[in-house]
């Protein structure tokens, strides 16, 4: 129990945002490969869609994490 409680304090805000960015990037790369496998070649619109999804995902996830961290305090 003590180890788990102490481990929660180790995660800093910067580290949390880096983990979020990496996970969203990996999800975007998986989407890219799925688009590529389905269509063969990607158009400019497909690239714009992938970038938009990544940006919106980052905004939502970081926003929710900020709200939850403020709510926790």
Layout of strands and helices, then pairs:
Blueprint: H1 2-8, H2 13-39, H3 44-72
Helix pairs in contact: 2-3
Molecular structure report:
The chain is mainly α. It has one domain. Helices cover 86% and strands 0% of the residues. Helix 2 runs antiparallel to helix 3. The longest helix has 29 residues. It starts with a helix and ends with a helix. The model has no long low-confidence stretch (mean pLDDT 79).
Identify the notable features of this structure and list them briefly.
73 residues; mainly alpha
Brief digest:
This protein has 73 residues and is mainly alpha-helical. Helices cover 86% and strands 0% of the residues. The chain has one domain.
Task: List the helices and strands in order.
Answer: HHH
Tell me the strand percentage band: under 5%
* Count of folded domains: 1
Structural class: mainly alpha
